[in-house]
Specification:
The protein has helices spanning 2-7, 11-17, 28-31, 47-50, 66-70, 163-166, 188-197, 258-265, 319-326, 330-342, and strands spanning 58-59, 63-64, 73-76, 85-89, 94-98, 111-114, 121-130, 141-142, 149-157, 173-182, 206-208, 229-234, 245-250, 254-256, 291-292. Helix 9 packs antiparallel against helix 10. The protein starts with a helix and ends with a helix. The strands form 2 sheets. Strands 2, 3, 4, 5, 6, 7, 9, 10, 11, 12, 13, 14 and 15 form a 13-stranded mixed beta sheet that branches. The chain has one domain: Roll (Carbonic Anhydrase II), CATH 3.10.200. The radius of gyration is 19 Å and the shape is globular. By secondary structure, it is an alpha+beta fold. It binds zinc ion. The site of zinc ion has 4 residues, from strand 7.
């Protein structure tokens, strides 16, 4: 019944749901996108092909914006335990969303505002992008560094009332991005999550009743660590690539173990292949500015770790493999390849 109801919603909603579980209900042309080959990013159509404000991007050459520092992000409901949440493998990513019970939800809404955002944005879902090895996997790059995992927390502008209505509006969406680096110890947040992964190894299966997690688990510690971020105007990173996203990518990272990354890599996509390398290549800025909320000239920012180092010694990076990942974008492939060489 729920699926039928969604079928009656707008097309835009369907595009967003390609983050979600219902792609089988779309026409072939709409569903046939992937991260490799003929249906891969270099052949995505419409805005993905012609847009001038696309995401992701390499975060560098930033401009300090003092208003971003003076008005930090305000998080509401981020510390609350997630109630009525569900974890879905949709064949493109792993997604955590909140079930709304037709206006009967008792869950406290999670919202963000401030931080230079033009309004209040309501949390809709979060999802992940990751690599086959820990040399790459993130969508954004920070100072030309890639990371094994990036989480996106997707919010819609409250004034539009729903994700579907907001998705194509210039001020419709606000997405928070957090990078992960590798550490030896497990991240306890993912210990809760990866236990559920086995239930959703194949697409379309839903694991429910995630409790004990809060949205704060997926951003750097609130307060000092969330005040430092990159800000730019961009797009969804999956078709239709609407240029409706105000991006906030945190400068500080979280951490995860190689063993926990293996749980992501053990998922399968809709073609029976391992669900890995679900990231879009970085896109040209076309004159856009990358603003930052932190005022220092330390572009050699000390992360407290070297993001290039992977603790998985069995991980090897094959040059052809990387070039395939990046399709026609040989520059990107070259950079990643050089990076993987430097890290060995
Ligand atoms: Zn994403």
């Amino acid at each position: 019944m729920r699926q039928l109801k969604i079928w009656n919603d707008s097309t835009i909603f369907f595009v967003l749901l390609c983050f979600a579980t219902f792609c089988n209900y779309l026409t072939e042309a709409e569903t046939q996108w992937s991260y490799t080959g003929e249906t891969g990013p270099s052949n995505w159509g419409e805005m993905c092909a012609v847009g001038q404000a696309q995401s992701p991007v390499n975060l560098e050459n930033q401009v300090y914006e003092k208003n971003l520092k003076a008005n930090p992000l305000v998080f509401k409901g981020y510390d609350e335990k997630l109630m009525n949440s569900e974890l879905t493998n949709n064949g493109h990513t792993l997604k955590l969303s909140l079930k709304s019970e037709e206006g009967n939800s008792t869950a406290i809404p999670a919202e963000i505002s401030g931080g230079g955002l033009n309004g209040t944005y309501h949390f809709a879902q979060l999802h992940f992008h990751w690599g086959q090895t820990s040399n790459y996997g993130s969508e954004h790059w920070m100072y030309s560094e890639t990371f094994p995992l990036e989480v996106h927390l997707v919010h819609y502008n409250k004034k539009y009332g729903s994700l579907a209505k907001a998705a194509a509006k210039p001020d419709g969406l606000a997405v928070l991005g957090t990078f992960y680096h590798i550490q030896k110890e497990d991240n306890s947040v993912f210990s809760d999550l990866t236990n559920k992964f086995q239930q959703i190894q194949e697409p379309q299966e839903i694991s429910e009743n995630l409790s004990g997690l809060s949205l704060a688990s997926f951003i750097p510690p609130m307060g000092s660590k969330t005040t430092e971020f990159f800000r730019y105007e961009g797009s969804l990173t999956t078709p239709g690539c609407y240029e409706s996203v105000t991006w906030t990518v945190f400068r500080h990272c979280l951490a995860i173990s190689e063993e926990q990354m293996s749980s992501f890599r053990a998922l399968y996509d809709g073609q029976g292949q391992p669900l890995v390398n679900n990231f879009r290549p970085v896109q040209p800025l076309h004159g856009r500015s990358i603003l930052v909320s932190f005022d220092d000239n330390d572009v050699e920012f000390n992360y407290g770790f070297d993001p290039r180092i992977t603790l998985d010694e069995s991980a090897t990076t094959d040059k052809n493999e990387v070039e395939n990942l990046y399709g026609d974008e040989k520059d990107g492939a070259k950079k990643i390849w050089q990076k993987s060489q430097n890290s060995q």
